[in-house]
Amino acid sequence: MEPAPEIERLLRAADLRVTRQRVAVLAAVRTLPHADTDTLLRAVRAEVDGVSHQAVYDSLHTLTAAGLLRRIQPAGSVVRYETRTDDNHHHVVCRSCGSVADVDCAVGPAPCLTASDTHGFVVDEAEVIFWGTCPACSTADTTTREVAP
Amino acid sequence: MEPAPEIERLLRAADLRVTRQRVAVLAAVRTLPHADTDTLLRAVRAEVDGVSHQAVYDSLHTLTAAGLLRRIQPAGSVVRYETRTDDNHHHVVCRSCGSVADVDCAVGPAPCLTASDTHGFVVDEAEVIFWGTCPACSTADTTTREVAP
DNA sequence: CCCTAGTCTTGACTAGTTCAAGAAAGCAGG
DNA sequence: CCTGCTTTCTTGAACTAGTCAAGACTAGGG
């Protein structure tokens, strides 16, 4: 389903052992960007039978530490992962269904990274999360009101 | 310790019943901005004996819904609360110790609220979190290296 | 003062994640 | 190709933060 050799190359480049579990995890995050751990676990098990949940947690942590994955966690959401790690892009999150989409930086390469007074903190990253309503939910809201409790 | 009448007034203005628990919760968040629920629970119990954790959770939810509190949750952190709700300010979070400080908007009243392409999402808020190292941790890091594992 | 809706207490329960010990597997060197 | 060391995976228990639900209590309008 996924080009395994390419993924294998990525793992070796990051000095990580190539295991079926890791390959499957990385492939899963590629095909399911912004998915949560449980969804990824299912996807991985569809590829490699009998993978333990701990292996998936471990792989996700390792791959994140190696810079192959990026971990995102909007308030009130479980942890989600994506493979776009190089660019400092941001996210829009739907308040209603929790879906996430990528948003490129609006103002140049690293906007908003100029806080007025950071109280002596040494800032290395500015994370921006846009909150709103996704197309599907805003349509559902206006057309079929009173459906949700 | 806190001006209870003032807090009472705030509660009534928000059409909420005035209970000892709520007053204590609101006072606790005032004196301990950015505190997590557990810290607040302890603070509340110091004022009013035997308060249940559920009452604190309920109060925090109710007060947040009424706009008297703002709930923040940086990735990897538990939920925290603060009383500054009117202005759209942001936060700096220490990667090392997790401490949080307020940061006022850098560019005008609502910066960064102009995402380039929001994929059809209707955006109503832009949340900015600055990640870095707090003064205490950066000092500890440079002077007493090798202390932490 | 009484009534009722809203709030609090008590205690069980859940989801998501981490911890720990031993078995299995990757891969460098011979 | 085989060996052995080290990392990774499996298994299964444990933990934390938070939620659910039933009944007792109480704020505040009448």
- Biggest sheet strand line-up of chain A: 1-3-2
> Which residues of chain A form runs of ≥5 with pLDDT under 50?
143-149
CATH level 1 name of the largest domain in chain A? Mainly Alpha
CATH superfamily of the largest domain in chain A, by name, is: Winged helix-like DNA-binding domain superfamily/Winged helix DNA-binding domain
CATH topology of the largest domain in chain A: Arc Repressor Mutant, subunit A
In the CATH classification, which architecture of the largest domain in chain A applies? Orthogonal Bundle
Q: Which pair of chains forms the biggest interface, and how many residues does each contribute? A: A-B, 42 and 42 residues
Structural class of chain A: alpha+beta
Multimeric status of the protein: homodimer
Gap between N and C termini of chain A: 40 Å
Strand percent estimate of chain A? 15-25%
Global Rg of chain A: 18 Å
Give an account of the 3D structure.
2 copies of one chain form a homodimer. Chain A is α+β, with helices and mostly antiparallel strands and 149 residues long. The first copy, chain A, has 2 domains: 4-72, Winged helix-like DNA-binding domain superfamily/Winged helix DNA-binding domain (Arc Repressor Mutant, subunit A, Orthogonal Bundle), CATH 1.10.10.10; 87-143, Dna Ligase, domain 1 (2-Layer Sandwich). Chain A contains 5 helices and 6 strands; from the N terminus they run H-H-E-H-H-E-E-E-E-E-H. Chain A has helices spanning 4-13, 20-31, 37-47, 53-65, 135-143, and strands at 35-36, 70-72, 80-82, 90-94, 100-103, 122-133. A 3-stranded antiparallel sheet of chain A has the order 1-3-2. Chain A is globular and about 45 Å long. In chain A, 26% of the residues are buried. Chain A binds chain B through residues 71-73, 75-76, 79, 90, 92, 94, 101-107, 111-135, 138, and chain B through 71-73, 75-76, 79, 90, 92, 94, 101-107, 111-135, 138. The structure holds a DNA duplex (30 and 30 nucleotides).
